[in-house]
Structures are given as structure tokens and as C-alpha cells.
Amino acid sequence: MFEGDPTATTPMSPIAPPPPPVRNSGVPAGRLVAVGLLAFALAAFSGRLDLGALLTTARSYVDQGSPAAQTTTNSSDSAATAAVKDVITRANQAQAQAYARNDPTLMRATATDSYYQELVQTNQGIQSSGARSIALVSLDWVDVTITGTTAQASTNETWRTTYTDGSVAESTDRNDYTLVLQSGAWKISADVQPTTQIINPSTGTSPTVTQPGTPASVTSSSSNWSGYAASGGTFTSVTATWTVPTVSANSTGADATWVGIGGLSSRDLLQAGTQAMVDGSGVTYTSWIEMLPQSSRDVPLSISAGDSVTVSITQQSGNDWLIAMKNNTTGGTYNVTVQYSSSNSSAEWVQEAPSVGRGLVSLDQFGAVQFSGASAVRDGKAMSLSALGAKAITMINGQGQPIAQPSTLSSDGSSFTIARTDATSTPQTGGRGRRP
Fold first, then answer.
1. Distance between CA 151 and CA 281 in Å, rounded?
2. Is the entire prediction scored with pTM above 0.90?
3. Structural domain boundaries of the chain?
4. pLDDT in tens, the chain (436 residues)
């Protein structure tokens, strides 16, 4: 998931883009894969339609620079480099053709089995968003690196989405591909978009919204995050409890509620949370974890609307992190220790419009989500949001209207509410997303 780096007194602002052509692996858009273009469609989270798998939550923003003019490679094998480029080119063409013909098998030849399933979910998500067609407008090569049977390639791609209502969305995003050599042929195993929406500095004024609590008066804005974020130190733990919101089955889109470490002014982001996805068959609720730039994955913790859920992410030692999730209503738990290299640079408590591939999913009508017990360990000390100087973030649509607004912090400094407004969640692009 994204954004600038708020201090205790300063609004968030974007970080400077890294100088090409050096390639840094890293995020993205974090709850929509970073998944294809539900984003355009409903604006990208974690694929359920399984849109839940499509989605992919947030997350850090970076790399807003213009395309590099030359390709660099650590491989002396020009034939292998050409083969990698050919696969990516054909894969993009295949995705557009598969969408136009409603034949996902056209995408199989250039993708690993797992990435193929992701692409299938991506196109399903795009279709459900009301997109009539998708087209690759341009592709510029930034970097290609080949090491043995693995390759990394970065591109700047411009895609155009045309909707059934006649509207057109077009955006240029960086894509960081991972490819593997299988049976003598290169295949794409992952595609992450490190460019994301920027959290813009606040104007210092509070938007007019219907908020169960008192709307936060000084906020920053984001195209897919609403909530609070803290930075300025070393974060080794984050936690919060929330009530899974009851989502209207008549709405369209998705929402993801999570806590995370990193991603505010860095490319890394470790996240865990819950998600709701609305499709033609109703509302699907899931639990998930994500370690950018890897795709998110659902975990076996059953949740339903109205359940109280507590999620914590805690560094054990080195790169070992314990993710603990509990459904306080049912008593169900899920715990896992993962290895992840984190910058430990920030902590977040967020309600998100997940992203899928090349855009953001529309934010569903979730009503309100209540956070309590929100805290983090910074520089070895457990602190509430108010003690951390956490900054409020308001989610806005393409017209600049607030669509999800956090309240001020309660007297305990660790509780707040995020309310969905009646403003339309219009299609936008550039989100870093959670993927299936």
C-alpha cells in the first residue's frame, strides 16, 4: 500500500523516485493485485469472484519517475534478455485478447500455473467492474536482470480501459515482473506495480461527511487508504481490534481492513487483516496476510459480518515475524511465523479500497468500521496512536470527494471509527494492491 512520511507535526508527502536504471524489488499496491484492473474498473486488495483473491491491500508508494530510455541487464546473454522481453510482450497481448474473446486459456502459455490463476481472477474482476475492453497503449523497458533460471524485468506500461458507459480510463504504471525458466521457456510468476497513489498533504480543513464520531480535522488524502499511520522510529509490532463491517450486498466492490508494518515511505509492507468482496452472488468475507511484493493469500480464519477480530504483527528476532489473528466472537485463531525483511519504518491502521493489477477496486458500502486497542511498539516502547503522533488519512474519489473518513481518536488515544460516505467510489489507477 503508498505514501508520504508523516512526522508528528508534518503532513505526508511523496518520497523522491529512485534513479533509474537501478531496479529495486518492491511494492505495491497490497487489499488488488496487484492483481489487473478491477482497479480501473471499480477504479487496483484479493481474488474473489473470488474477488478476494484478486485484491491486494496497499501499499507504499514509490517510483513515480518517467520511463528510462535504456535497458540495463546483468546478463551477458542477449538472447535470454530478448526471450524475457518477448514473453512479457506476448503476455500483455494475451491478456487483452483473452479479455476480448472471453477465453482465459490464451494467457496460459506465458504464465506459471499460479500466476495464470491470478490472471484469470484479474480478468474476471475487470469484467465485473463494467469494463468493455482493455488495451495496452505503450510499453517502455526500464531494466532486465537475469540470474540463472530467474529473471527480473521492469517496464513502464500505459493501459487504456473502456467502460460500457462510454467512459475511458488511461494510466501509466511501472510493472516489476519476476520470471522463471520452466522446461527451457521463460514464464511470468509475478507482476508487482510499485507505483501507487500518493497521499497528498492536507489542506488543514475537514471534509463534510457523516461520521459516527467527530471527523478528524487535519488529514491527508489517499485514493485507497483511510485510517491512521505513524512513522519516525523503528516499529517492531502493531496491533488493533476491529468489528468486521456489515457490507451492503447491493453495493459494488470490496473493502479491506488491516494493520501493517512498513510501506509508508518504503517499498516493503507486511500486512494482515480481513476483507469483504461483493459480487453477483453476494458478499464474501475472508481473512488474509500479505508480504509485499508477494501476493496476498487467504488464511483459514473464518469471519462474518459483526465479528470482533484482533490482529497483531510482531517481530520476533531478525527477519522472523509472528502474525497472530483471533476471531474474538467465535474463538477461532490463526498464528504463523513468517520471514520478512522489513524497513520497520512505519505502522498503519487502515480501511482500504483494494487494488487489482492496474487499478483500484471500487470501495463497497461498508457503513463504518470501529478500531480499538490500536497501538504499536516504536523504539522498544508500546505506544497508543496519540502517543505515536499518528496521522489521519481520508480516502477520496477521482473528484476529490471524501469516500471514507476517519474520526478523531477517542480519549484513550487508541480507538477511532472510519465511516463510508455517500460519495461515489469512482475508477482510479495507480494503486499498489494485494493479490490473490
1. 39
2. no
3. 219-420
4. 222 232 222 233 222 223 333 223 333 333 333 333 333 333 333 333 333 333 433 333 333 333 333 344 444 478 999 999 999 999 999 999 999 999 999 999 999 998 898 788 777 767 766 678 889 999 999 999 999 999 999 998 888 888 776 767 777 778 889 999 999 999 999 887 765 443 344 333 333 445 555 666 656 888 889 999 999 999 999 999 999 999 988 877 889 999 999 988 888 999 999 999 887 678 999 999 999 877 788 999 999 999 999 999 999 999 999 999 999 999 999 999 999 999 999 999 999 988 765 556 788 899 999 999 999 999 999 999 999 999 999 988 877 888 999 999 999 999 999 999 988 876 444 333 332 2
Q: For the packed helices 113-128 and 78-101, what is the interaxial angle rounded to 10 degrees?
A: 40
Contact (Cβ atoms closer than 8 angstroms) between residue 416 and residue 213? yes
CATH superfamily of 219-420: Peptidase G1 (2.60.120.700)
